[in-house]
């Protein structure tokens, strides 16, 4: 791929249509031929491996995957001329639908490819894109010119010299060698390193920095409630030359083909552990969703514990124009190194490494899965420069984009420092401060958003314009815990005094007395002020047990005499455990109840079985649902004890299916416990309950068949025991879930796909791409093992009583065999819901889907209106990163929706 043509040269050779249209398979293959011609493997045979169906336009496809020769590369061609023509490509490897389906790291991206193309078809002017016209016009078109070749392939000291093998790491052994093990009731669970830690460590390997970590860090491991701490000063130095650059999924060195040595595994494992602790990793087994954290935690630990540049920060795309964002990507790759990049979409999120840049805004990505599926890809499906409106041009991972900016070592010569436990700050003429007013009040609680103010005076003869950092040293300790930094640079003139406001999250700090410290930036490094910024005492408020609902209940619909399981997500928001009776009531009548134990701060799903005499006696009608516990206290959602509505109908025949419905996701439960979602492994030693979340673009009414199949692409269950028919009703842009259970004796294959099919009166409709894959194992990986199956494992062992992988699932009341889990459960919400919101827990954006244009008002939990948004019909992406963490309510027409801002 050596020849490149200017835009003008290609434009002069064009002769193509000026009206946009769907791209048919033969045309897609021709475009792929145009793209590949002239390369060293240009003559290799092309084969189409997948066409993503467009359910709204019969016979058309949203995109095409076309492979070249035998593992000689692939290209993903858009199915519509109005978007950019090439979505992703590689000059090596092979890609098909099943391979993408089995790789969680890119599955979400391809979901967004499809949804963005569908959006473009409905909202973008009906004319072909420039990239399509250029590609269609010439049969010797070349791939976009590389502006920056993939950095993980080359040496940092000389980018013209290739490494023996590209740097590409993963999350399993040896990367999780030091990741903790959970032991629960004699069962052992090995956790993985996490994609954030793997992405950061990959870039650190490229820099080969630092020689050793320094300082101390601690945090609370969310899934176990255990305190995790590490003294970096006590750890050995890193031997970067003894960390193989490329390691495959079997733990083999890609350069030699041999399994890595014990010393190599130890070096890599320690690095991943050190980074994981630094970013407050919520460790978990791969089968339950893996380990996760927020990229925003990275700058503090990389600067303070790993000696990276003090300017390092995590930035969000929504705060930048497209031009500024892409200029930042190019500058970071040119002057600093590979980029740790995070993307979040409705299909999920993943942290990965961007290490290359090509013309037309293509980037090269290492997905952090041992070199699997690495490729050049677009993170903007629509071409730049157009007026695409809300949600337009937002790319394969939506606007939930973040990246680490200015990531480079603090000095390019590695001094192999021997840090002291109590480093003394050195006065600096570029910014010397005195503290004129310490933090007040001195009493704080283990809560988020604790405001602290301190006044500082610039006693130097120069102005200061940079950041300040607040940290705390617990009484009896010599190590500082970083609390927060100022959100933007602060200007303090020479001789001037400035009041600084910090908003600290103290939820993970232990109770006790602390000395507060302020640091400022000098010569790119944090310098701590000699004076104390005050003292504080941290304690917790005593509230007792307090059970609250964490989301609104869907409207539950059933028929007279037909019991349902009603599931309510709750949390014990108090500081004491609850152990007692919880009852569900319909217009005051108890319809289900039982004994429940819920620890302080524990989340759970209460599954109320209603096969009781009281429920059976209820007549057709509408009922208000409430829940009481303890001595008559009410479970509330917001400020209301009315949690939802139960509708009981007279029995009737199911209606003929009209409209559309698709599978959005699926969650799995066994023995009353959540066991994972897509790609998880379930046990064949227990019945499997599948909760299928559904979505409709145009509304749906009628029968839908849920099924599992062991053969990808099938539109029916492997047997009748693998199928369940439900009658549902959904409004336009509606969403909800149904459940069905498969007996353990029917789980006979090692892999299945969950999907649905319905008949529109003419034919069966099934989107095979939406199927959710899962695995079945006689060796029950989710339920742990009784012995250590990782030879030489060095991860700490944490003993817990009831490991929380996902929310706890508590069955309340009798559960007879005649009650099918979720017979008509939450899907009833959709019959009356004309607006929906997702995700319900967000840090960057939320999406509001509504059947008609209108207004949305966003209120804080205290009732203050914080935003007023104009909505268009369909999906509306709303930025929420500017909101403080907490609970918010969204009023849309006559509906009230809720989300939690992290």
From TrEMBL:
Which residue intervals are annotated with compositional bias (Pro residues) in the record? 416-426
Q: Identify the Pfam families for this entry.
A: Inhibitor_I69, Peptidase_C10, Por_Secre_tail
Signal sequence interval, chain numbering: 1-20
Q: Please list the GO biological process terms of this entry.
A: proteolysis
Alphabetical UniProt keywords: Hydrolase, Protease, Signal, Thiol protease
Q: Where is this region: Disordered?
A: 409-429
Q: Which residues form the Secretion system C-terminal sorting domain?
A: 837-902
GO function terms (MF aspect): cysteine-type peptidase activity
Record's InterPro entries?
Ig-like_fold (IPR013783), Papain-like_cys_pep_sf (IPR038765), Peptidase_C10 (IPR000200), Secre_tail (IPR026444), Spi_Prtas-inh (IPR025896), Streptopain_sf (IPR044934)
Q: Which residues form the active site?
A: 195 (nucleophile), 350 (proton acceptor)
Keyword Repressor part of the UniProt annotation:
no
Q: Where is the Spi protease inhibitor domain?
A: 20-103
Family stated for the protein in its record:
Belongs to the peptidase C10 family.
The protein's name in its UniProt record: Thiol protease/hemagglutinin PrtT
Please report the organism this UniProt entry assigns to the protein: Prevotella aurantiaca
């Amino acid at each position: 791929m050596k020849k490149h043509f200017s835009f003008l040269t290609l434009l002069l050779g064009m002769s193509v249509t000026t009206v946009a249209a769907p791209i048919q398979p033969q045309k897609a293959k021709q475009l792929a031929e145009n793209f590949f011609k002239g390369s060293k493997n240009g003559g290799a045979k092309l084969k189409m491996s997948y066409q993503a169906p467009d359910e709204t336009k019969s016979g058309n496809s949203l995109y095409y995957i076309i492979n070249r020769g035998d593992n000689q590369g692939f290209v993903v061609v858009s199915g519509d001329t109005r978007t950019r023509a090439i979505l992703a490509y590689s000059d090596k490897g092979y890609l098909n639908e099943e391979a993408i389906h089995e790789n969680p790291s890119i599955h979400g991206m391809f979901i967004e490819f499809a949804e963005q193309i569908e959006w473009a078809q409905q909202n973008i002017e009906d004319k072909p894109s420039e990239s399509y016209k250029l590609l269609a016009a010439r049969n010797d078109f070349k791939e976009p010119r590389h502006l920056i070749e993939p950095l993980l392939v080359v040496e940092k000291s000389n980018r013209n010299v290739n490494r023996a093998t590209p740097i590409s790491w993963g999350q399993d052994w040896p990367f999780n060698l030091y990741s903790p093990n959970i032991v629960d009731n004699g069962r052992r669970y090995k956790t993985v390193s996490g994609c954030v830690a793997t992405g950061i460590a990959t870039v650190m390997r490229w820099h080969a920095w630092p020689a050793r970590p320094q300082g101390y860090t601690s945090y609370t491991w969310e899934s176990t409630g255990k305190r995790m701490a590490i003294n970096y000063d006590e750890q050995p130095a890193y031997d970067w030359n003894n960390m193989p650059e490329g390691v495959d999924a079997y733990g083999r060195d890609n350069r030699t083909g041999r399994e890595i040595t014990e010393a190599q595994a130890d070096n890599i494992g320690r690095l991943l552990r050190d980074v994981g602790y630094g970013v407050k990793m919520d460790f978990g087994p791969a089968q339950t969703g893996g380990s996760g954290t927020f990229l925003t935690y990275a700058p503090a630990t990389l600067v303070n514990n790993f000696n990276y540049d003090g300017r390092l920060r995590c930035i969000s795309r929504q705060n930048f124009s497209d031009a500024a964002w892409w200029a930042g990507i190019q500058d970071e790759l040119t002057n600093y190194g590979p980029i740790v990049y995070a993307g979040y979409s409705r299909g999920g999120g993943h942290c990965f490494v961007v290490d290359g840049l090509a013309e037309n805004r293509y980037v090269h990505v290492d997905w952090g899965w041992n070199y699997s599926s690495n490729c050049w890809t677009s993170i903007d499906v629509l071409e730049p420069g157009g007026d695409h409106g809300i949600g337009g041009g937002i790319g394969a991972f939506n606007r939930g984009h973040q990246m680490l900016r200015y990531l480079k070592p603090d000095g390019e010569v590695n001094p192999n420092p021997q840090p002291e436990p109590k480093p003394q700050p050195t006065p600096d003429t570029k910014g010397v401060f005195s503290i004129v007013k310490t933090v007040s009040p001195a009493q704080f609680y283990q809560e988020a958003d604790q405001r602290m103010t301190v006044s500082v005076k610039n006693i130097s003869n120069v102005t200061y314009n940079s950041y300040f950092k607040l940290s705390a040293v617990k009484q009896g300790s010599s190590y500082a815990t970083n609390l927060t930094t100022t959100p933007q640079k602060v200007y303090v003139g020479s001789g001037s005094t400035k009041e600084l406001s910090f908003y600290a999250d103290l939820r993970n700090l232990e109770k006790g007395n602390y000395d507060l410290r302020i640091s400022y930036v000098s010569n790119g490094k944090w310098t701590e002020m000699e004076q104390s910024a005050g003292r504080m005492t941290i304690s917790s408020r005593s509230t007792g047990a307090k059970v609250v609902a964490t989301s609104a209940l869907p409207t539950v619909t059933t028929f007279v005499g037909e019991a349902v399981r009603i599931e309510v997500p709750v949390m014990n928001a108090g500081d004491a455990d609850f152990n007692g009776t919880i009852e569900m009531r319909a217009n005051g009548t108890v319809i289900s109840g039982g004994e429940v134990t819920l620890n302080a701060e524990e989340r759970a799903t209460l599954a109320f079985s209603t096969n009781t005499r009281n429920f059976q006696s209820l007549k057709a009608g509408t009922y208000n649902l409430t829940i009481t516990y303890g001595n008559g206290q009410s479970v509330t959602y917001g400020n209301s004890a009315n949690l939802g509505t139960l509708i009981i109908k007279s029995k009737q025949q199911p209606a003929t299916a009209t409209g559309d419905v698709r599978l959005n996701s699926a969650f799995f439960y066994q023995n009353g416990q959540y066991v994972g979602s897509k790609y998880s492994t379930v046990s064949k030693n227990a019945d499997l309950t599948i909760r299928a979340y559904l979505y409709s673009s145009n509304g749906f009414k009628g029968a839908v068949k849920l099924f599992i199949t062991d053969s990808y692409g099938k539109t029916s269950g492997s047997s009748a025991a693998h199928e369940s028919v439900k009658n549902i009703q959904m409004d336009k842009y509606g969403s909800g879930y149904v459940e069905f259970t498969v007996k353990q004796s029917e789980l006979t294959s090692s892999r299945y796909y969950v999907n649905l099919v319905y008949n529109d009166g003419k034919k069966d409709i099934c989107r095979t791409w939406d199927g959710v894959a899962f695995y079945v194992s006689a060796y029950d990986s989710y339920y742990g093992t009784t012995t250590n199956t990782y030879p030489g494992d060095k991860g700490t062992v944490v003993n817990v009583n009831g490991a929380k992988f996902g929310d706890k699932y508590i069955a309340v009341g009798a559960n007879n065999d005649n009650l099918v889990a979720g017979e008509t459960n939450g899907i009833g919400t959709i019959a009356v819901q004309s607006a929906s919101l997702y995700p319900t827990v967000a840090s960057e954006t939320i999406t509001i889907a509504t059947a008609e244009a209108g207004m949305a008002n966003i209120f804080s939990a205290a009732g203050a209106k914080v935003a007023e948004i104009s909505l268009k019909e369909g999906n509306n992406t709303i930025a929420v990163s500017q909101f403080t963490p907490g609970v918010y309510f969204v009023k849309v027409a006559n509906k009230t929706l809720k989300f939690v801002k992290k």
